[in-house]
Design brief:
The complex is a heterotrimer of chains A (about 130), B (about 180) and C (about 400). Chain A is of the alpha+beta class and about 130 residues long. Chain A folds into 2 domains: about 1-45, no CATH class; about 50-135, Alpha-Beta Plaits, CATH 3.30.70. Chain A has 4 helices and 5 strands, in the order H-H-E-H-E-E-H-E-E. In chain A, a hairpin with a 4-residue loop joins strand 2 and strand 3 (about 90-95). Chain B has a single domain (about 10-165), classed as 2-Layer Sandwich (Beta Polymerase, domain 2), CATH 3.30.460.80. Helices cover about 20% and strands about 30% of the residues of chain B. Chain B has a 5-stranded mixed β-sheet, with helices on one face. In chain B, strands 6-7 form a two-stranded parallel sheet. In chain B, strand 6, helix 3 (about 125-135) and strand 7 (about 135-140) form a beta-alpha-beta unit. Chain C has about 400 residues and is an alpha+beta fold. Chain C has a single domain (about 55-350, about 365-370), classed as Cytochrome-c3 Hydrogenase, chain B. Chain C is built from 17 helices and 10 strands. Chains in contact: A-B, A-C, B-C. The interface between B and C is large, with 48 and 48 residues. The complex binds iron/sulfur cluster (SF4) (2 copies). One iron/sulfur cluster binds near residues 66, 69, 70, 90 and 109 of chain A.
Chain lengths: ~130, ~180, ~400
C-alpha cells in the first residue's frame, strides 16, 4: 500500500507555518484588552498580511469636493449612502456597505476612494467608526 | 452524442411550424457572434398555445434523444401569467448547442399547465417552484408540495406575482426602521 | 414520505443544516440496516427572495445582488446576468474584455474545485490533504485579490465589459502564482490518483449512470463524471471560449473508462483545474489590446438600460455546472423579471439515484461529491422506533473516517 502523503507530512513538520499569527502568537484572552495594551505600548501586535494595491477597503470621503449630485446614491447596491439635504453632502453607513466601489466609479468629482483599511469589526452598527461623512 | 442529425436553428423552427401550424404564435432566432474567430451560436424563442405545450416538448425528442431542460421562468403581466420554458439541444456537439425557449401564456382565471416530468424527470423541481412562486397548478405533477418556500409561509401569497397575491405587503425595510 | 416502508426500516433526517451537506438542504433517508433505500429532499432553507429584490433595483445594483447569491460563484452569477442583459440591450463587448472575463472565470473555477477537493478529502478523514489544497486555494485567492481588489466578492463585472484591466506590470506576479498552483497541482494529482485510500473509499461509491444524468438533467462536473459531454464553454462558446481548443473533461481521459462514481468526480475536477490554469495562461498571452468596457460612463449606461425592452438568457459554465439566468426588461429602471438557476438546482434530483443502496457512512462524501453550495451547523437526528436521538456532525464524520480505516486494514 502506498501512502503518498507521508513524506509531505514529515517535511511539513520542519517548515515554518504558513499562517500569519495575527494579532498575536497566542490568541489573547480578551482582544479589546490586548488592543488597549498595544495602544499603551505594553504589547506588540503582529501586523496582518499586507493588502495588495487597489484593495477595496473602508471608504474615504472628501467632503470639500462633493457637489451633492446624488449619483453615488443612485448606484449604491446596498442603500448605504444617505443624503443630507441641509448641507448637500452625503453620509455613508459602512455597516451596510459591501465595498463594491461602484460609488467611486460614478462620482464625477472623485470625492470617494477606497483605502486599504479592513479591520472594521464592531458590535454597534452605528458606531462612529462605521459612519463616514 | 446521438446518432440523429444536427439541424440548424431555422430547420428547427420550420419543423415546429410545419408540425404545429397555428399553435406556434411567434418564433424568432437570435444569433450571437463571439471571439476573435467569430464563433456563432443561436437562441430560439417560440411562443406557443398552452394546449400544445406538452406535444411541443415531445417534439424536441425528435431532434435529440435527451433534450436538456434548464429551467422554467415566469412573470406576471397583469391579465396573464407567462411561463418561459428553457431547453437546449445538442450539448456535446461542439459549439452547435442551441437554446430553445418556449413561452406559454396562462390566463389568470385558469392558471393550469400540463406537467412534463413524465418526459423529462429532471423538470420536477422547476415545476414545483412555479406552483409556489406563481400560484399556478401543474396538472399531473408527481410531487405536489413546496420545495423552496417554507411551510409556515402564508397560503395564497405568491412571491413572483404583481397583483394582490404578491408579496409586497410583507416587505419591511429594517434599516429605515432602526434609524427612526 | 411514508413512515417506515418495512418493519425493519427507520428514518434519518439529515439537515436542514449540516456540515457534510454544505448547503442547507434537508434529506430524509429511509434506512434498512445500513443501507439507504429511499430519500426525500427538501430545499429552500435559505431562500432570500433575491429574484424579487432585483425588480426593485437598477441593473448595476443587481450585479452586486447577484454576487451575493453564492460566495464561491461570486463571479458567475453577475456575469450570467450581464450576458442576458447585454443580449437584450444589444451591447457589444470589446474583445479584450472577453479575454479578461475568461481569466476571472477560470480563476474562480480553480478556487472552487480546489476547495471541493479539500472538503472531499476531509469528509473521508484525510485532513492532511485538506491543508495541501488550502495552500493552493490561498494562492488562487491571493491572485484574485490582486486582480479584483477583494478575495471573495470580486466586483469585477460590469455590463459591457469588466471593471479592471490586467496591465503588463502585473504579469510577473500572475505568472509566479500560476506556477505555484501548477506545482502544487502535481502533488495533489499524485495523492488523489495514486493513493490507495482514496481509491478504496471513492470507487464504486455514489454511482450516477449516464442515463440518469441525462434524464435528470445533471450539469457540470457531475454530469461529465458520468460521461455526459455537457460544458457550456464548448457547447455555446460565450466570451472568447471559441478561440480556444478545449475538450470536455471526462474521466476516461485518465482511466479509460467511465463509472460515474465519486472517484470519477475527483478526476474530472482535478483535470479541470489543470485546464483552467492553462486557459488563464493562454488568455493572457493571446489577449488583444483595446478597451475593457464598451461604455465607461456609468450614467449613460444606466440611461441606456432604462430604455430597453425584451428578454434574454445568459448561460455560463460555473464551477459546478451550467448557470442559467433569464431576464426580462420592460422599459423601466429595474428588470421586470429575473430567474436565476444555479447549477445545484439541477444537481439535486440526481442525488436520489446516487444515494440509493449506499451506507450511512457514505452520506457525507456522496453529498459532498456533487459540490453543493454551502452553510453549516452541527447535528443529525436519528428517529428509531419513534425515539429520537441526536448524532453530531463529529459522530457522522467519525463514522466516515472509521469506514476509511476499515478499508485500509
Ligand atoms: S462601496 Fe458600494 S456599497 Fe459601499 S457605499 Fe459605495 S456603492 Fe455603496
Ligand atoms: S457622486 Fe460624488 S459628488 Fe456626487 S454626491 Fe456622491 S460623493 Fe458627492
Amino acid at each position: 500500500m502506498k501512502f503518498t502523503m507521508l513524506p509531505r507530512t514529515f517535511a511539513q513538520m520542519f517548515k515554518k507555518p504558513f499562517t500569519n499569527k495575527f494579532p498575536a502568537k497566542y490568541a489573547p484572552a480578551s482582544v479589546t484588552g490586548f488592543l488597549k495594551a498595544v495602544g499603551e505600548g505594553k504589547a506588540k501586535m503582529i501586523p496582518p498580511v499586507e493588502t495588495p494595491p487597489n484593495f477595496r477597503g473602508k471608504i474615504q470621503y472628501d467632503k470639500e469636493s462633493c457637489i451633492g449630485c446624488k449619483l453615488c446614491i443612485k448606484v449604491c447596491p446596498t442603500g448605504a449612502i444617505e443624503f443630507k439635504p441641509e448641507d448637500k453632502k452625503i453620509k455613508i453607513y459602512l455597516a451596510r456597505c459591501c465595498f463594491c466601489s461602484q460609488c467611486n466609479d460614478i462620482c464625477p468629482k472623485d470625492s470617494l476612494s477606497m483605502s486599504n483599511e479592513f479591520l472594521l469589526a464592531d458590535t454597534d452598527k452605528y458606531s462612529k467608526d462605521l459612519i463616514v461623512e | 452524442m446521438t446518432a440523429l442529425k444536427i439541424l440548424t436553428p431555422d430547420e428547427i423552427v420550420q419543423s415546429y411550424k410545419g408540425e404545429f401550424k397555428n399553435n406556434i404564435l411567434d418564433a424568432r432566432v437570435e444569433k450571437y457572434v463571439n471571439g476573435l474567430k467569430k464563433n456563432e451560436f443561436f437562441h430560439i424563442w417560440i411562443r406557443i398555445e398552452r394546449s400544445a405545450y406538452k406535444d411541443v416538448v415531445k417534439h424536441l425528442f425528435t431532434f435529440e434523444k435527451y433534450p436538456h431542460f434548464a429551467v422554467s421562468s415566469g412573470y406576471d403581466l397583469g391579465d396573464t401569467v407567462e411561463l418561459v420554458h428553457h431547453f437546449s439541444l445538442y450539448c456535446g456537439a461542439k459549439s452547435r448547442d442551441i437554446s430553445v425557449s418556449f413561452t406559454v401564456s396562462l390566463p389568470k382565471n385558469d392558471l393550469t399547465i400540463d406537467t412534463i416530468t413524465d418526459l423529462i424527470p429532471g423538470a420536477l423541481i422547476s415545476e414545483q417552484e412555479k406552483q409556489e412562486m406563481l400560484g399556478i397548478k401543474v396538472i399531473g405533477i408527481p410531487k405536489d408540495d413546496r420545495v423552496f418556500i417554507s411551510e409556515d409561509f402564508p397560503e395564497c401569497t405568491y412571491p413572483w406575482r404583481r397583483d394582490e397575491t404578491g408579496p409586497d405587503k410583507m416587505v419591511r425595510n429594517l434599516h429605515d426602521e432602526v434609524k427612526e | 414520505m411514508s413512515k417506515g416502508k418495512t418493519k425493519t426500516s427507520y428514518q434519518i433526517p439529515i439537515g436542514p443544516i449540516h456540515p457534510a451537506l454544505k448547503e442547507p438542504v434537508q434529506f430524509n433517508f429511509e434506512i434498512e440496516g445500513e443501507k439507504i433505500v429511499d430519500v426525500d429532499i427538501k430545499l429552500g432553507q435559505v431562500h432570500r427572495s433575491i429574484e424579487w429584490a432585483a425588480t426593485k433595483r437598477n441593473p448595476v445594483q443587481v450585479l452586486y445582488l447577484a454576487e451575493r447569491i453564492c460566495g464561491i460563484c461570486s463571479y458567475c452569477h453577475p456575469m450570467a446576468f450581464t450576458l442576458a442583459t447585454e443580449r437584450v440591450a444589444k451591447i457589444e463587448v470589446p474583445e479584450r474584455a472577453q479575454y479578461l472575463r475568461i481569466i476571472h472565470q477560470e480563476l474562480e473555477r480553480i478556487c472552487s474545485h480546489v476547495l471541493w477537493a479539500g472538503v472531499a478529502a476531509h469528509e473521508i478523514g484525510f485532513d492532511t490533504v485538506l491543508f495541501l489544497t488550502w495552500q493552493i486555494r490561498e494562492t488562487a485567492l491571493d491572485l484574485t485579490e490582486y486582480l479584483c481588489g477583494n478575495r471573495i466578492t470580486k466586483g469585477i463585472t460590469m455590463i459591457g465589459g469588466v471593471r479592471r484591466d490586467i496591465t503588463s506590470d502585473m504579469l510577473p506576479y500572475i505568472n509566479e502564482k500560476l506556477n505555484l498552483i501548477k506545482g502544487s497541482w502535481e502533488k495533489l494529482r499524485k495523492i488523489f490518483l495514486e493513493d490507495k485510500t482514496f481509491q478504496l473509499r471513492s470507487q464504486g461509491c455514489g454511482v450516477l449512470t449516464k442515463e440518469d444524468a441525462l434524464k435528470l438533467c445533471a450539469v457540470g462536473p457531475l454530469a461529465r463524471a458520468s460521461g455526459v459531454k455537457k460544458d457550456v464553454r464548448i457547447d455555446q462558446p460565450y466570451f472568447s471560449f471559441g478561440d480556444f481548443d478545449i475538450e470536455y473533461m471526462t474521466p476516461d481521459i485518465v482511466t479509460g473508462e467511465v463509472n460515474g462514481d465519486v472517484y470519477d468526480r475527483i478526476i474530472v475536477r482535478l483535470l479541470e483545474v489543470k485546464q483552467s490554469v492553462e486557459l488563464i495562461g493562454e488568455s493572457i498571452d493571446r489577449m488583444p489590446e483595446g478597451e475593457i468596457v464598451s461604455e465607461p460612463k456609468l450614467v449613460k449606461l444606466l440611461n441606456q438600460l432604462k430604455k430597453i425592452e425584451g428578454e434574454g438568457i445568459g448561460r455560463m459554465e460555473a464551477p459546478r455546472g451550467e448557470v442559467f439566468h433569464y431576464v426580462k426588461y420592460m422599459n423601466a429602471e429595474s428588470p421586470y423579471s429575473w430567474k436565476v438557476r444555479a447549477p445545484t438546482y439541477s444537481n439535486v434530483l440526481p442525488w436520489i439515484p446516487m444515494f440509493m443502496g449506499e451506507q450511512i457512512a457514505d452520506i457525507p462524501i456522496v453529498a459532498a461529491s456533487t459540490d453543493p453550495c454551502m452553510s453549516c451547523t452541527n447535528r443529525v437526528g436519528i428517529v428509531k422506533n419513534g425515539r429520537q436521538s441526536y448524532m453530531t456532525s463529529e459522530q457522522l464524520h467519525h463514522l466516515s473516517v472509521k469506514k476509511t480505516k476499515e478499508l485500509m486494514k
